[in-house]
Write a structure and sequence with these properties.
By secondary structure, the protein is mainly α. The chain is 49% helix and 11% strand. Helix 2 packs across helix 3.
Length: 148
């Protein structure tokens, strides 16, 4: 089965596929974490907190000209790397495009073999929250009306 991914996400997957060693994949994740734009402290509110994550993770989404733009942060570097990977992969897509993406692309990166079950679950929860926020835009709902 071939994954059809948006260009940015496809590039990220290719980058991870170049590394066969789990250590190199972790280094790549940490690189993404370092590149993540700082999230305003004011945005770190309960409604932006990702539930089901061991670490503190926050995600916001804005709709500008029909495209979704995310911001996020985590208090754990590897998780911050996952947040950054998702933000870079999904930013600038339409809600419709985001709603079509399934989280199984993580398997193509090879990361799921390196992630602990709680981190893999955290990744899934972060992805689902980002998707929920995009779908809320698609449905024209206020984000405050969408349960976390």
């Amino acid at each position: 089965m071939t994954l059809v991914l948006p260009p940015n996400l496809a590039k990220i997957v290719e980058r991870f596929q170049r590394h066969s060693a789990p250590k190199k994949r972790y280094e790549q994740l940490l690189w993404y974490a370092k590149k993540l734009e700082a999230m305003p402290e004011a945005a770190k509110t309960p409604e932006n907190k990702v539930q089901g994550c061991v670490s503190q993770v926050f995600i916001t989404a804005d709709l500008t000209d029909g495209k979704v733009w995310y911001q996020g942060d985590s208090d754990a570097q590897l998780v911050k790397g996952l947040v950054a990977l998702l933000i870079q992969g999904l930013n600038g897509l339409t809600p419709e495009e985001i709603s079509q993406i399934t989280p199984n692309f993580i398997e193509a990166t090879g990361l799921q073999v390196s992630l602990t079950p709680s981190r893999a679950n955290g990744f899934y929860n972060i992805f689902q929250m980002m998707k929920k926020k995009a779908i809320a835009f698609q449905l024209g709902q206020n984000l405050a009306d969408v349960a976390p």
